[in-house]
C-alpha cells in the first residue's frame, strides 16, 4: 500500500482521477432509491488522505471556482426573478431557516466546546450544501471543516428524506392533493393547449396585430378554424364570431384569454390540413440576441412560435422574448414555411453545443478579482468574498442580464453541467484528502457529539421552514414539502417524495426557493467561518 501511495503522490493528476473515479463509483451505489452521487468523492478523498495521499492545493481552488461559477450561471436567471415574482415569502423562509442553523451551530460550539472547524463544517454538511463547504474553506483553511461536513452530510440527507415523507403521509396533505387544481398558484408555469369559441364581438373583424392580445394575456393563438377551414394565426388573420381558436399558454394566461374572447370548447380541429409542427434548436448566430418582434417572424417567415424551452425552463414566447443559441422552439405553420424557417434558424446542430470561452473566462477572471478584493465594513472590519463568493456573485449577475458588455454570456446546459461536475469532484477530492489525515482521530474523540450536533442542525432549520410555510405564509403542506427540500438544498429528497405523491406543487415550490437558499447558504457559511475564526 505504501508503494501505491508513493506512486500516487509522485503523480498527482493520476491520484486525483483515481480518487474521483472511486468516489463516483461509490456514489452510484443505490440503496432503496438513495445514493450519494458525486458527493461520495469526499469520502474516498478522506480515505486516501488517511492512507497518506496528497493533492496540490491549486486543484482545490480550481474546483471551487469552476463549481461555484457554474452554480451561479444555473441560478442567476431565476434568482432575482424569483424574489420579484413571489415577493419576499420564499426569501424570508430561506433567510430565517438557514439562520436558525447558524445559531444552532454557534450555540453548540460555545456551550459544548467542540472544535470550531468541526462546527463550521457541520453547518453546510447538515444542509447538504457543497457550495457552503467551499465558501467556508475559502475563509478558513482548516481540514476539520471537511471532517465536520463529512460527518453531518449523510445524516442531513437521511433527515430531510424522512421529514418530507412524514409530511406527505399527513392527512392534511392528502386533502390538499384532492383539492389541488391546475389553477393553483404554483401551477401557472405549466404550458398547455386549449381551444376557445369566439363570442366577444369586440375582438372580431380586426387583424390580430391590431387587437394586441399580448398586452392583455401572454397566451399565443396559434390556429384559427373558420367554417371548415383551418389556418395559421398570422398577424393579419381576422377573427369572426363563432370561430374556434387554438391557444398555447399557462393556465392563468389561458383563463385571461377565455374572459377576453369566449368560452373554452372541445370542438375538434383537424390539424392535418397543410399545418405542421416542427421542434428546432436555434443555432444561427445572426438571429440571437434579438426579440421575436425584431425578427418579424410572423410576417417574414409565415410561422408561429408556440413554445420555447431554455435549459430546464419552458415558456410561452411573446414578441418581447429574446432568442438564444440552443433554445428549443416549437414552430407551427405550412410545411414549406416551417422547413424554410428550420433551414434558416437551426441548420447547424453542432453550434448549439458550442461554448464561447471568452465571456466564460472573462467572467471567472472578474469573479476572482472581486473575490480577492478586501472590503472595509463598519467598525473597520476587513472582509473579502473569496474564491467562492466572488465568482458566484459575478455569475449571478452576468447570467441574469445575459451579457458582459457586448459579449453574450449564455452557456449551453451541457457545458454548465460538465463545468459544475468537474469543479465539484475536483474540490471534493482536494477537501477530502486534506481532511483525511486527522479524520480518524477526530472521530474517535468527538464523533458521537458532532453527530448529534449535525442532527440538530438538520432538524431545526427543517422545522422552521415547515412552520413558516404552513402557518406564517399559509402555503399549505404540499408547497411546504418543496420549500423544505429547497431550503435544505436537498434534491434527492424531492425525488423520493415526488415518486409517492402525484402533485406538481412540491417541485414548483422547490424550484422557487432553491436558488435563493443555495446563494444564502454560501454566504452564511462564510459568515459562520468568520464569526468562529
Distance between the termini: 37 Å
Side-by-side strand order of the widest sheet: 1-4-2-3
The helix-and-strand class reads alpha+beta
Helix content: 55-70%
Q: Can you count the helices?
A: 20
Number of spatially distinct domains: 2
Please count the beta strands (DSSP E, at least 2 residues each). Answer: 12
Q: What does it look like?
A:
This protein has 533 residues and is α+β, with helices and mostly antiparallel strands. The protein folds into 2 domains: 2-179 and 371-531; 187-352, Alpha-Beta Plaits, CATH 3.30.70. It has helices spanning 2-10, 12-27, 41-51, 57-86, 89-112, 116-126, 130-139, 143-169, 171-179, 208-211, 251-261, 292-295, 297-301, 335-345, 357-372, 386-401, 413-472, 477-487, 491-498, 505-531, and strands at 192-197, 220-226, 229-232, 244-249, 275-281, 304-310, 313-315, 328-334, 374-377, 381-384, 403-404, 407-408. The longest helix is centred in the last third of the chain and has 60 residues, at 413-472. It is elongated and about 85 Å long. It starts with a helix and ends with a helix. The model is unreliable at 181-189 (pLDDT under 50).
